[in-house]
Amino acid sequence: MASRAATKQSPLFVCIIGTRPEVIKMAPIIRRLREVRWADVRVVAIGQHLELLDQAIADFELQIDHRIAVERQRNSIIEIAAKIMERFDVLADRLSPTCVIAQGDTTTVMASAMVAFHRRLEFIHVEAGLRTGVLRAPFPEEFNRRVVALAATLHCAPTAQAAANLRAEGVREQDCIVTGNTVIDALLYMAGRTLPLPADFPDVPKPILLTAHRRENAGAPLERMLGALRAVVERYPDVGLYFPVHPNPDTQRLAERVMSGHERIRLVPAQNYPTLVAALKASWLVVTDSGGLQEEAPALGKPVLVLRDVTERPEAVDCGAARLVGTLPDRLHHSIAELHDNSQAYQAMAQPRFPYGDGHAADRIVAAIAERIHIRDPSSTISGQVLGAGPVDPTTVSSDENSID
Ligand SMILES: CC(=O)N[C@@H]1[C@@H](OP(=O)(O)OP(=O)(O)OC[C@H]2O[C@@H](n3ccc(=O)[nH]c3=O)[C@H](O)[C@@H]2O)O[C@H](CO)[C@@H](O)[C@@H]1O
Q1: Which ipTM did the prediction report?
Q2: What range(s) does the UDP-N-acetylglucosamine 2-epimerase domain occupy (predicted)?
Q3: Would you say the CB of residue 19 lies under 6 angstroms from ligand 1?
Q4: pLDDT digits (tens, 9 = 90+) for 50-89
Q5: Does position 391 have pLDDT exceeding 50, yes or no?
């Protein structure tokens, strides 16, 4: 589905999505681009398990226009990257976009950036400049981030710190803007809707929302952390756990083995975004290794314990909304016990804070793109014109859903 108001002369924007967090963080930009009159927008889903993205994108009342499904025959990220590059190159040739927009640090984003670079396309990188400073942690995301930064023509940094990271790598000031993170736009959009609490959410005064999916925590570290969390629930009758478990079969088996059989521990499948936001709103505490949840929880005043040794999101820790507890079980147990037993310590963390933006990141990003490609009337949602593109043709561009497999 092309944007309703776009015309044949409108510049074409290819918006890439590959995983659930990319959908959540790209959706506010896609929605904003669809509102303006000067943009023709195509949503391109690239990667494995694309069927999982349909619900996620529908939660934002959007649709996928083109799909590049990439199957993995060997256990190799390089195989995936090579297939994405080859197939996205074919689609880019056919669509001839003005801009490619992608978010984050996945292999999909890295491979798309390579294609955009070789085709000399504008490449807009959303959530630019996140760095741990350790090339192999997280692996391979930190490497992907740096490759993407080489290809990007406009870097949309979520925070001043992320922009400073880019400037230190030599990115020119005029190519980098601080926008806030679009996840806060998505969160506030969703949190403003009436969201029913999941039926199996634990009915206790202090429910903990747990997510854990990082590759580096898989296996023994995760087992130790789950053991510590079970011990916390057994120690405190007013504490429960809501755990949407990652679909990875090893993680599922581990979670079943360590966590099953306790009335206040609820193991559930990965939840759609509206349900997850409802659970987040109802939680007392968040324990996670997720990047997105580190950003979302502070905005709703939910303290976060981060199951990582390093984070590319230091802002939440710096403002007192999050603590980096690593993966040692004693530290995790002790941190939760402290927040449980010391209400002052809890309240100090539980103030709503917005280190990742005010919910208007997508507006800033679309305005910066308009400036970059010389849109004459960027705020127009009725009759904008593209400079140098001639008179606006009232013919609405339409595109059927395509697959290039
Ligand atoms: C290394 C790293 O940090 N990489 C990050 C990673 O993203 P992540 O760590 O944030 O990934 P997840 O935790 O999977 O997703 C989180 C989102 O999903 C929602 N959620 C969660 C559970 C559920 O059951 N239902 C849901 O709806 C939740 O509220 C949140 O919004 O990849 C992104 C690019 O893909 C990167 O940009 C980003 O740096």
Answers
A1: 0.97
A2: 32-369
A3: yes
A4: 988 999 999 999 999 999 999 988 889 999 999 999 999 9
A5: no
Of 293, 294, 315, the one to substitute when testing ligand 1's pocket (max ligand atoms within 8 A of C-beta) is 293
Q: What tokens appear for 108 in the block?
A: 């999909």
Residue 3 has pLDDT above 70, yes or no: no
How far apart CA 141 and CA 99 sit, in angstroms, is 23
**Cα-flanking dihedrals φ and ψ of residue 43, to 5°?**
-95, 120
Lowest mean pLDDT among 81-90, 92-101, 347-356, 396-405: 396-405
Catalytic residue of the set 119, 146, 167, 213:
213
Domains and CATH numbers, the chain: 12-181+357-403 (3.40.50.2000), 206-349 (3.40.50.2000)
Asked about 175 being catalytic, the answer comes back as no
Catalytic: 318? no
pLDDT at 247 over 90: no
Least confident of 37-41, 169-173, 376-380: 376-380
| Distance from the alpha carbon of residue 295 to the mean position of ligand 1, in angstroms | 10
What per-residue confidence (pLDDT) applies to 175? 98
Please say if 262 is a catalytic residue. no
Mean pLDDT, to the nearest integer, of 256-260? 97
Q: What is the pLDDT of residue 20?
A: 95
Residue 213 is among the residues annotated as catalytic for this protein: yes
